[in-house]
Write a structure and sequence with these properties.
heterodimer, A: about 170 residues, mainly alpha, Cytochrome C3, two-stranded antiparallel ribbon, 2 strands, B: about 325 residues, alpha+beta, three-stranded mixed β-sheet, 9 helices, elongated
């Protein structure tokens, strides 16, 4: 009877231990795919395969810096951000402003006790964070590889059906 | 003892006083030290971030209502275009206030791209060369021009050390100078960033107060040792420009003119021009004085002539 009890206790402890280790995964809602379309205008939104990137990157902090509770990668950041705490927000747009050059944003940069002054805006953060890795790992690097252009985009770039006639294209000095 | 008449004495004194008054004070003679408007805006261009997508060209074209381009903005064969028998790459034109060029550098495996546009200098050479005052340096930092006042003399095109202003050669009846105006009328005046800055996907362009941008640029250089050249192009060139550049490769490799003086262009002529009023006032008085002193007492030729005429008349 005592031997059976110790087995049960070991089993329960083992199960509890596994659950504890898996706790971080339960703490946040990890989406499998994310629709990134907050800035969509000239290009369509991005169907972002989150699960694939989780499998590729393994470490959340590769993209999410330190906000997911895993350690920081950049030693420069680790001077302050070295507590392994999950932040209230993980989404890019909650720290990287969609409009980084508004008058308010520029005014805020002038405040002297603001450390993060040279921060990417949202569009810059998306592209810089993604393209760095894509270039190393042979991922998509062309504009339309990740997001197709809209009609407005074609008109903006004078491309596709809005392209100038071929006659004028060839007309330049050698 | 030479006898000077009262009239001459008074005239001489008056001329001397006028000359002294007209001579500029030492303050004006000293070359100005204009640090620019303190709240002037600027743009920091980080050439390590530019990928040559040409979205900025497209955004400028739309914002400034420029005519349709010859090639689509996502056509990258334009980077191979050369002019003047292969000696020059693309430059701003009347139809394109900004262009992006591609450069190869031994210090980089990837090509380096550079965006060219008006640098909105603190003491613009174009402004100082314009004799009709078509250019204005606004307090927001933008150097704008009034095409209605422009007479199309193109002095500014010669004066600009960056060879930026373009000319609308296509117009036979009303050609004027055309260049980037920092999206002043439509954006910067209302506190919004210029169109090119807003569209840049990699944030190679950062808009903000020029003083802040210099700090950001220095911090970037310090934080990433070896990634950047230890210099901010535009910090002091020709007296400082509003558009500042950071580069990972030497600036000469990317087409920048690194031989430019660190003082405003006008300093080359300020000292000379400042002496002109003094010369115009003093020299006539001075040389008149010399002439009168040297011919004093001698008979002047016209007196004999008058005497002859007189005699002729009497006969």
């Amino acid at each position: 009877m005592i031997r059976n009890t110790s087995w049960h206790i070991k089993g329960v402890l083992l199960l509890a231990g596994c659950l504890l280790l898996a706790l971080p995964a339960f703490a946040m809602d990890v989406p499998e795919s994310v629709e990134i379309d907050i800035l969509a205008d000239l290009y369509q939104g991005v169907e972002f395969d989150h699960q694939m990137h989780i499998d590729l990157a393994q470490d959340c902090s590769t993209c999410h810096h330190h906000t997911t509770g895993t350690g920081t990668v950049d030693l420069y950041c680790a001077r302050c951000h070295n507590t392994f705490e999950e932040q209230a927000t993980v989404a890019c747009q909650d720290c990287h402003l969609a409009d980084p050059f508004s008058a308010e944003a520029i005014q805020a940069k002038g405040e002297t006790n603001l450390f993060h002054v040279d921060v990417y805006g949202l569009k810059g953060a998306y592209h810089r964070n993604c393209m760095g890795c894509h270039e190393k790992m042979d991922g998509p690097t062309g504009c339309q590889d990740c997001h197709a252009r809209t009609e407005a985009g074609d008109a903006f770039y004078h491309s596709g059906k809005y392209a100038p006639p071929i006659a004028t294209q060839a007309d330049h000095e050698e | 003892m030479s006898k000077i008449s009262r009239r001459r004495f008074l005239a001489g004194s008056l001329a001397g006083c006028a000359a002294v008054m007209a001579a500029p004070t030492s303050k004006a003679l000293a070359s100005g030290n204009l640090a620019g408007f303190p709240d002037g805006m600027g743009v920091l261009v980080d050439l390590t971030r530019c990928v040559g997508c040409r979205s900025c060209e497209a955004a400028c074209n739309k914002e400034q209502k420029l005519p349709a381009p010859d090639q689509p903005f996502d056509d990258y064969s334009v980077f191979d275009q050369t002019f003047h028998h292969g000696t020059q790459k693309r430059r701003p034109t009347e139809k394109a206030y900004t262009v992006v060029n591609r450069y190869e550098s031994k210090q980089s495996d990837k090509p380096v791209y550079r965006k060219i546009q008006c640098n909105h200098c603190n003491e613009p050479a174009c402004l100082t060369s314009c004799f009709v005052g078509a250019y204005t340096k606004t307090k927001e930092g933008a150097v704008i021009y009034n095409s209605k006042v422009c007479v199309g003399c193109r002095n500014c095109m010669i004066a600009c050390p960056f060879h930026v202003p373009a000319y609308s050669y296509s117009s036979a009846t009303d050609p004027v100078v055309k260049k980037c105006i920092f999206c002043y009328d439509t954006r910067v005046k209302h506190g919004k960033p210029p169109a090119c800055v807003e569209i840049c996907p990699t944030q190679a362009l950062v808009f903000g107060k020029r003083a802040e941008l210099l700090k950001i640029a220095r911090e970037r250089i310090e934080r990433h040792p070896g990634k950047y050249q230890d210099e901010i192009y535009g910090e002091k060139e020709v007296g400082g420009t509003s558009w500042l550049y950071l580069s990972g490769v030497p600036f000469e490799d990317v087409g920048f003119d690194t031989t430019l003086q660190k003082e405003p262009i006008i300093n080359n002529v300020k000292d000379f021009l400042a002496t002109v009023p003094m010369v115009l006032a003093i020299w006539p008085a001075l040389f008149t004085g010399f002439h009168l002193l040297s011919t004093k007492g001698k008979s002047h030729g016209d007196e004999d002539q008058h005497a002859e005429q007189h005699e002729g008349g009497e006969q």
